[in-house]
Each structure stands twice: as structure tokens, then as C-alpha cells.
Amino acid sequence: METLRCTKQSFDVLVAMIEAQWQSVRGSFPRRNAVFSVKERVGVCLHYLTHSGSLADSAKIFGMGRASAWRYIEEIIDILIIRIGPNVVRLPKTTQEWEACCKEFESICGFPDVCLAVDGSLIELLRTLNYEGWYCRKGYPAINVQCVVDAQMRFRDYAMRPGSENDKGVFTRSVFGQTIHKLLPPGKCIAAGAGYQLFAHCLTPYDIREGMPQTENTYNYLHSRTRIV
Prior knowledge:
Layout lengths: L7 H19 L11 H13 L4 H7 L4 H23 L6 H15 L4 E11 L17 E8 L5 E8 L4 H7 L1 H9 L5 E4 L9 E2 L10 H14 L2
């Protein structure tokens, strides 16, 4: 858990998925006498993606050279993006799937008709050579990642922009933000934070102010409990 941010069982499943798709993306498996197996290549990739250290730090843990580690990381990421990602991180495709997502959210605290929750997360990164636009509102270089999840905390969509872009801007520029109103079943919506724009298909909280009606306070409380996933 500390090194790879997942359980042994999850790691083995991921390795099996990558091995099954290896030839379709990379052409052929690593040679039998290769120093590092597919499992070790997946390991260094996971460590690099889930820690804030340098590439050299991840390579050192697995006894790899920096250049080799970078090559292995690219191999694994290619397979994740090209073959595995589209089948795992995806929006519901049928009315039944949308309804199931809606019922899961409603079971949290009774908030109806919400199918997905969306929010932005600032991921700090080393300052790039051309760092114009990468500094976020908190004063450090970052990527603003728009995360769309269901009630079981499974990623359904994501989009990334430089850290200076606010949540509303990421939503507006993303494919998800431009198309979700066409994909949702009639009467269904997504739950979003205060940094997003209110739409019929995108519910945001009321602005907090003195003397708010109790109904608005109650709405904000239930909206927050629903969206907290």
C-alpha cells in the first residue's frame, strides 16, 4: 500500500490486464532474458504516478536506470490509455446504468436524480521550463484535474488543464462539460461544487450568506453529503 498505493490483489489484477493487452499495443512481450518483467515495469510506473518524488527516486526503488524506468513507464501508460482506460473510465451507456447510478446516490441521504458528481483537484507538479499559466490559486505549479465519479467512488470521466484554469473553465473546455446535458436521461443531473455554473443539468450549492432560509441550508447540507464522494 505504501509503495504502490494499492493492494496486492489489485496490483495482480492490473498486471494481468496489462499483459493481456501488451501485444496489441507494444507488438511483442519483453524477451525472456529481459532484466525487468512486466510486473516490475507496472510497479515502477505505479510508484512514479502515485508519489511526488522524481523519476530517479522511483527507478532506484526497483534497481533500474533512469532512462530504462522512463521507457517502461511510457510502455505501461500507452497500454493504460489506448486499451484499458476507455473500458474502465467511462460514462454510463444505457438508461439502466444511469438509473443505477442515480439510485446509489439517492441512497446516501435521499437527494434525488443525481447520477454523477464532479469537482476539480489541484495536483502539484515540478515547475516546468515554460511555467506561464501553470501556477494555481494556491501559489504553486499544478494541474487542475476535473474528476467525475459515481456514488461508489469510481472514476467515470476526467479532464486536465493547467493549474491557473479554474473549475468552471475546465468544465467549459472539457468534452464532458460540453456534452453531458445531451447524455443524461430527462430529469437527471450532476452535482457540482460552488466553483461551477448552475444549469438545469448541473446542480450547485446556494451561496452561503447571513440570514439564509432554512430550506436553502438544508439543500446545501444534503447536496454536500451527496457530492462528498
